[in-house]
Each structure stands twice: as structure tokens, then as C-alpha cells.
Amino acid sequence: MFRWILGGRDAQRGVEMNSVLRIGEEQPRNWFTELQVLKGHFDIVRFLVQIDDLRYASAGDDGLLLVWNIETGEKLQEMRGHSQQITAMVPLTRVSRDTTHTWLVSASSDRSLSLWDPDTGNRVQTISDLQSSVKCLLVLERLDVWVSGGAELCGWNIDFQLQCQRQNHSDTGITALVELPKNCIAAAMDKEIVIYRLTASTDLSLTLAEVRCLSDHQDNIRTLIPVNDGMFASGSHVGELILWDSVDWNILAYEHILWEESQADAPSEIRLGAGPKPCEMSIQHLTTDGTLILAAVGSGLYVYSVVTKTVVAYRRVAHDSNILHTMLLELMSCSEDGSVRMWEMQDLPLPAEAASAGFFGMWSFGRSRKPAEPPCRKTPEAPSIRILEPTGDLIGHSGAIQMFLSFGERGLVTCSTDHQMILWKNGERQSHLRSLALFNKLEASDGL
Fold first, then answer.
1. CA-to-CA distance for 448 and 446, rounded, in angstroms?
2. pLDDT in the model for residue 277
3. Angle in degrees, CA 418, 419, 421, rounded to 5
């Protein structure tokens, strides 16, 4: 196996975009052999949102929202209106009779919310002078409403009219929102998850009531995601992964990742410092396909089965720095080190000493509640555990990659602190499309 290194760190300064450096002997399963640098932002790009099969929107610290074509890399719209950085962005789809239209809702540090039409680039609605900045947005399609979270939780109808509001008593405010069954939502605030219920009255107005507070995390919650219809998951700053029942909100599993060597037969090692750094065990990002969860823990990756409540694959050091975003369906991750890496699960070589707790931290399997005292250091038996092996790198950014967005065979787009985006393409597919376009052009002009 070998790496493809595309463009290099200086790609944004005019290096040939389809230049490829080959290291090794065998071709990896990395089809992204062409790249295109997209320029338009002049500050950190933090958010990428898919609009439809061909378009996506980008936003970041410059307050701009840009709409792009994934096939050509063309900038279609430039939407200005926010005076400070964008803090959240979501698509809002409205269905009326035979038409379906997708809008964009954005929140900014300027304490405003805006509704944009990506077709025209116009700002259709705006709400200003909010009490605080909105940190997260959630669309509830079943109720035709959307919710904003920050120092307060607000419910809005499709016409941008405030329907309900609750003040929160938290230092950081609401940082993540998840939709639950029976018109409920889960809101992450500091170490707690608060369950709210939305109730629609006969006059179409909404009320918002707090029904439960889940306080089982020991540190601040960093990520909150829905897993399937009956389960959602949360990850904390100290490596806690908790699976929750979406209906009765009870704990289904509690796992704690610790970066401590615990093999009795491992050679002694002199280490500076009393323990792991907080960033090394913080769960930065979670993604799922409904049966597996991919957890980014510091610079490591763990694949966790929600069926068996066990780790089924891992890579303790997957990147040189903290991982910021992951994708499970195609097993990809991006990091502060400026790289995107692709992975596949492989069986561990025998003997399988690497399956011990010393290589993937210490997991307290199958706990129904938070442990009252530090867990024991017994090595769990995990005969079927696998290792994550890299199949390719995408190197082109000069700063931390904030996230990526996949359009399947059409390509992959990444955004970074270097103020740029890169569109990664399947080289073989692009070559075929160019040949086909040339053939059609020659045929139309009777050149054959």
C-alpha cells in the first residue's frame, strides 16, 4: 500500500492541480486523483451544507454564504448580510402542492437569523436583535417548524415567526439539538441534556415544555447525534459515550474511553505529565449509519456497535492532531493536521495482543449507568475486534480541515482554516467525462 499525495501543501499557491506523487508499489483505494481549489471566502470556512444533488453552500467567519456547483466548482451565488461570523447553517425545505424548494437558514454572532434563497441569492427574511448568538439550528419537518438554540431555545414557524421560547440557565447555552419521537427534542447544555416537548394547539400556536433533565455526563457534552428511531448518542470532553433511549430517555450503554496504558506485560515507559491531555480523550465528533457509531476521540478513531455494545474496530492514532469531522458510510476523517484520510476495517494479525485495553483505552462494556467509582482495569475480551487501516490521504490544505461533504461519485469538498475549499474528484471518471464531451462536440460539428 502507498499514499497518493495530491497537490501538496502549496496547492493554493498555484501548484498544478492534477499533479500526483506516487510512493510505494501498489495502488490504494483512493480515487480522488484530481483536485480543484475553490476561492471565495476570506476567512475560516466552517460549514458545508448540501442543497440538492448538484449544489452546496459554504459559510464561515467572514459572514458570507456562497453557493457552489459540485460538478464544475463554479460559484453560483454570493450572499451577504451578516456582519460577523456564521455560527450555524441548515437547509429548510418547503413543499407546496407540486413544488419543492430548499432555502437556507443561517445564524451569526451578530445576533441575527436569516432566510436565504440559494436560487437567487436574496435574503428573504431576517430576525435581528436576538438576546444572544444562536449556536445550533434544527428543522422539524413533521411540525413545519425549526428551532434555534443558544442562551435561549426558540421555536419558529416556516414563515420566520416566533412561536415559543424558553430561557436557559447555562454558562455556555445550548450547543447541540436532536429531534426525538413524540414531538420532543434533546438539547445539550454543559454537562446536561434537557428534553423538551413541543405541543401544537388548535390555533396552530406552539408551546415548549421541559420534561426531563439528563445529568449523567461528568464533563461538557461535545457532540449529540440521532442514531436510529429508538436511540441517540452523546459524547463528552472526557471521553464518555452514552447511548440513550429516544422514547423514555434511559441510558442504554455507558462507555468511557481513557488514554491509559494498562497492559501488565507492557514494557515500562517514562512519560511526562500525570495523565492524558484533555484533548486526547475528548470526543470531538460522532457519526452513525444506524447500527455503528464512528467516534473521533482526540486523534483516534473507534467504531462502536450499538447492537453488541462493543468496539468492533479502532485506530488509536489516526491523525497527527485532533480529528474534527468523520463519515462512516465511506469511512473518512479529517483533522487539524490538514489531511483527510480514508480507512477500511481489517482483521488484527495473530496473536491479537493489540486488542487489549492498552491500545484503545479502557472501555467499560455494557454499563447501564454511570460508574460511581473508577472502573477496573481488566482487559475486556474482544476476539472480533478489527483495526482501521488507511487506504489513502488527501493532502492539499495548509490549515485545519473543519469538515467535508461527500456527493458520492460527483466528488468530495473540504473546507479549512486556510480560507479555502478544495473539490476532490475521481480522476478516472473525470477523464471519461472529458473524452465523452470531446466526442459529442466532434460529432455535433461533423468532425468525425
1. 6
2. 56
3. 95
> What digits encode the pLDDT tens for the residues 82-112?
999 999 999 998 877 778 899 999 999 999 9
Residue 394 burial (CB < 10 Å; 0-12/13-18/19+)?
A: buried
- The confidence score (pLDDT) of residue 252 equals 96
Q: Distance between CA 309 and CA 328 in Å, rounded? A: 17
- In the chain the first and final C-alpha atoms are separated, in Å, by 42
DSSP code for 269: -
**Residues 6 or more apart whose Cβ sits within 8 Å of residue 268:** none
Contact 33, 427 (CB under 8 A): yes
Dihedral sign of CA atoms 206, 210, 211, 216 in order: positive
Strand order in the sheet with 122-127: 86-96, 99-108, 112-117, 122-127
From residue 210, alpha-carbon distances to 9, 194, 281, 310 in Å are: 49, 7, 31, 33
Reported as type and span, the H/E element at residue 384 is none
**Residue 384's pLDDT is what?**
75
> What pLDDT score was predicted for residue 343?
96
Q: Could you give the CA distance from residue 73 to residue 194 in angstroms, rounded to a whole number?
A: 41
Whether residue 335 contacts residue 299, with contact meaning beta carbons closer than 8 Å, is answered with: yes
* Segments of the chain with pLDDT less than 50: 1-28, 259-275, 352-369, 371-382
Those residues whose C-beta lies under 8 Å from the C-beta of residue 373, and which sit 6 or more positions away, are none
Amino acid at 431: S
